[in-house]
């Protein structure tokens, strides 16, 4: 079901557009990944969709209603946001952090009811960190902290979750676990989940849809397969140093004695394959 609709949307700052007009939609039950180079406008688009800054022109509809017609409390009950810059929270437990997700319903200083407690505990369980409920946030690993912030977003009980680079600063295993978790939440909890990410190979594997801001500041939208088949990824990625292997759905380094590939299906370690010419040289094959 269509949850967010963008119609001729122009985003930017001080009347300077950073992306060409956007007409697209985000659907419930889907994980959509936003890709683009640094400075391409990804964060600006996320902030605009979350209602943190107004668009320059165009319309954003949330559940069929223009975004500007939602008041702050209504919007907080519709959209939850997980930012890259985490709050500097210390001496607060995971349970207390997730409980902050109930503030759109209780008020910031409001007490938690039995129903709120059940929602908090359910949200913590959904991300798989129940044993960490009473741990202080500062004692958690980066991956565990990210799950705690996702649980806070779930406790907010919104139909839309927007995340700004949720896999930044995580090791590869934690990146994979976080994206698998978000995909599972989108599909099983019927959430509309929209996130920015730099890891193209991971996005291809987990995303239902991909939004890619290309070098011409145009938004390309499609399934991973559609963008690969249409040559979007090779055009976006290829330069003098790297190229995109559409068949294997991997990024390769060019002009090297070694072809370096990361296989995301196994581990974060680099699998290095010697070129046939080097193998021949090493073994004196003529």
UniProtKB/TrEMBL annotation:
InterPro entries: AAA+_ATPase, ABC_transporter-like_ATP-bd, P-loop_NTPase, Siderophore_ABC-ATPase. Its main location: membrane. CDD domains: ABC_Iron-Siderophores_B12_Hemin. GO terms for cellular component: plasma membrane. It is found in: Cell membrane. It is a peripheral membrane protein. Residues 4-240 form the ABC transporter domain. GO terms for biological process: iron ion transport. GO terms for molecular function: ATP binding; ATP hydrolysis activity. Keywords: ATP-binding, Cell membrane, Ion transport, Iron, Iron transport, Membrane, Nucleotide-binding, Transport. This is ABC transporter, ATP-binding protein. It comes from Hoylesella timonensis CRIS 5C-B1.
């Amino acid at each position: 079901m269509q949850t967010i609709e963008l119609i001729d949307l122009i985003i930017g700052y001080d009347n300077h557009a950073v992306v060409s007009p956007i007409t697209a939609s985000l659907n419930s039950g889907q994980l959509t990944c936003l890709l683009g180079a640094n400075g391409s406008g990804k964060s600006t688009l996320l902030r605009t969709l979350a209602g943190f800054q107004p668009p320059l022109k165009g319309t954003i509809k949330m559940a069929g209603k223009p975004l500007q017609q939602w008041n702050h409390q209504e919007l907080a009950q519709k959209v939850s946001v997980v930012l890259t810059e985490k709050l500097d929270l210390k001496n607060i437990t995971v349970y207390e952090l997730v409980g902050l997700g109930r503030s759109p319903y209780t008020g910031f200083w409001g007490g938690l009811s039995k129903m709120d407690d059940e929602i908090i505990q359910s949200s913590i369980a959904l991300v798989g960190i129940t044993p960490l409920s009473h741990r202080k946030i500062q004692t958690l690993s980066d991956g565990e902290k990210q799950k705690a912030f996702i649980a806070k977003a779930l406790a907010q009980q919104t139909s839309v979750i927007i995340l700004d680079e949720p896999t930044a600063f995580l090791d590869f295993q934690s990146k994979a676990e976080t994206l698998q978790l978000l995909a599972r939440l989108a599909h099983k909890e019927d959430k509309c989940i929209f996130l920015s990410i730099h890891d193209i190979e991971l996005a291809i594997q987990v995303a239902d849809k991909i939004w890619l801001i290309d070098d011409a500041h145009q938004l390309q939208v499609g399934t991973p397969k559609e963008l690969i088949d249409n040559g979007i990824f090779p055009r976006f990625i290829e330069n003098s140093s790297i190229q995109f292997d559409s068949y294997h759905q991997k990024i390769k380094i060019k002009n090297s004695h070694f072809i370096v590939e990361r296989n995301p299906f196994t581990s974060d370690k680099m699998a290095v394959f010697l070129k046939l010419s080097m193998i021949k040289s090493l073994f004196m094959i003529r």
